[in-house]
Amino acid sequence: MVNVRRERFREETKVEAKRIALEQLAEQGIAGISVNAIAKRMGVTGPALYRYFKGRDDLLNDLVRDAWHDLADTVEAAVAASEGAEPPDRVRAFGEAFRSWGVGQPHRYMLLFGTPLPGYQAPDDTLMAAHRTMSAFLSVLPHEGAAPGRATAEPSTLDAQLVAWADSRGEGDVPPAVLLTGLRGFTRLHGVLSLEVTGQFGPMGIDPALLYRAEVESLLLVDSEEVRGSTRLSGPG
Amino acid sequence: MVNVRRERFREETKVEAKRIALEQLAEQGIAGISVNAIAKRMGVTGPALYRYFKGRDDLLNDLVRDAWHDLADTVEAAVAASEGAEPPDRVRAFGEAFRSWGVGQPHRYMLLFGTPLPGYQAPDDTLMAAHRTMSAFLSVLPHEGAAPGRATAEPSTLDAQLVAWADSRGEGDVPPAVLLTGLRGFTRLHGVLSLEVTGQFGPMGIDPALLYRAEVESLLLVDSEEVRGSTRLSGPG
DNA sequence: AACTTGTGTTAGAAACTCTAACAAGAGTAA
DNA sequence: TTACTCTTGTTAGAGTTTCTAACACAAGTT
Questions:
Q1: B55 CB less than 7 Å from any atom of strand D
Q2: Which of A90, A180, B35, B99 is the 20 to 30 Å CA partner of B4?
C-alpha cells in the first residue's frame, strides 16, 4: 500500500524547496541557486535536501520542467481568452502573453532558452509542455488557404522537416506553411524578447516593447512574403 | 619610466590565461571557467592569477570584451570582402559570417547574449565593439530611397529613439528606416541563432541553417513590409 | 514486537573564490 | 655597491560550494 501522507509531505517539501529556488533565481540568476542555502532557509541541514533531489542539476531540471508548464499554461490561457476574436488579434494576444511571461521573470526565461546544462536532454514531460506552447501559437494562425502538404520526396527541404516534426507530435494535419510561419514567428519573438530580458537594449535607449510589437505585426505578413520572390531589397515600391 | 619588458610579460600572461579560459568555455560552458584550474594549467598556484585579474568576474568581462571585438572584426571582414556585390548578397554575406561565428563557438556566443553577471555594465570599450558589429550590418543595408529623419517631436516613437541612438554613436546620418531594418534584422538573426547554439532545434529534427537563411531573406523584404499596412494575415493573395 | 523504509543528523572529501602575510626577484636610485 | 621600491610569486586559511558516507531515530508494515 502506498503511504499517502508521507507522499504528500514529500511533495510539499519539494514544492517548498523549488519555491525558494525560484526566489534565488529571480534575485541572483541561475548561479545563485544553492541547495545548501535552500536547505538552511527551510530549517534543515544541507544534505537533507539530497533525499528529495538527486543533486543540484536535478533540481534545476525540475525548475525547467515547471517553467515550461507554466509558460504553456499561460499562453494557452491567453489563446483561450481570445476565442472568437479576429485572427490578427489572437496572434497579438499570444505575443503579449508570451512577452509578459518573459519580461516578468527574466532569469526564468533564460533558464528555458539559455545555455542548458552539459549533456542535458529534455525529458518527455518537458518536451510536452514545450509542444503545448508551440501548439497554442499554431492554433491562432489561420490554416485556411494553406496547401496541406505531406511527406515530400526531398527530405532535406524545410517543408519536409516541418511536416515530420508535426507528425511526431500528432499534428500531422497542420499545413507546412503554417508550421513555417509558426516556427519563424517564434524565433522572431524570441529574438527580441531574449535581448530584452538580458538587458541588451539598456544602453541603447530603445523601448523593446515597440520593437517586439513591430515583430508581432510582421508575423501577420510572413505568409505573403513567402509567396512573392525574395530578391527585392528595400526601397518603397 | 615605463618598464616595457615587464609590461610585455604581464600582457602575455593575461593572454595565456584567457586562451585557457576560452578552452574551458568551449568545453564546459561559462560555469566551467575556473581561475584555479587556469592557474594550475599555467604551472602557477591559484592566487597568483589574482595579480592579473581582480577576480573571476574581471576575467569574464575581459572575455566578453574580446569576444565582441572578435565578432566585430569577423563581420567587418565579411562586409569588406563583399564590397562591390549586390546589396542582397552583401546582406547574405553578413548573415553567414555572423552565423558561422556563433555556430563555431556556441558558448562564446551565449557569453555575449546570455544572462550577464549581476550588475554588469558594459564598458565603453565593449560597447564600441558592439557598435562596430551593428554598423557593419547597417553598412550593407541600402540607404537610398529612405527618408532622412531627424529628431521627431514625439520622443516616444520608435523612430525618434532610433535616431537618438544613432546620434549617440555618431551615425546621425543613417535614416531611421534603415536603423529599424537593421535592428529588427539583427533580432531576427539572433532569434534563430540563439536557439540553434543552445540546442533547441535538436529534438525537432529541423535544420537551423535553412530557417536562418529564410530569415536572412526576410530582411530583404522588411522595408517593403513597413510600407504596406500590417493588417493582412496569411493566405496567398 | 520485529523489521523495513524514510528522513534527518554529523563528518568529511574535494572543489571553488578570494584575502592576508610573507619571500624573493627585478628595476631604480643614491 | 648598497638601499629601496615595486612586482610577482608562494603558503595559509576563511568561507563558500556540491555531494557521499555513516549513523540515529521515527514512522509504517508485518
A1: no
A2: B35
Task: Round to whole Å and give the CA distance between B167 and B181.
Answer: 17
ipTM: 0.92
Place of cell 501559437: A137
Question: Can you identify the CATH homologous superfamily of domain A62-226?
Answer: Tetracycline Repressor, domain 2 (1.10.357.10)
CB-CB contact of B42 with B16 (8 Å): yes
CATH of B1-53, one of 3.30.479, 1.10.10, 3.40.1350, 3.40.50: 1.10.10
Grid coordinates representing B96?
Answer: 553567414
Nearest one of A22, A21, A23, A9 to A51, comparing CA atoms = A9
What pLDDT is attached to residue A157? 86
Query: Cell match 507528425: residue?
Result: A167
The domain segmentation of chain A, as residue ranges, is 1-53, 62-226
pLDDT in the model for residue A221: 77
Q: How far apart are CA A212 and CA A219, in angstroms?
A: 11
Which bases of strand D sit closer than 7 A to a protein CB? 7-13, 16-22, 27-30
Answer yes or no: is pLDDT of A228 > 80.
no
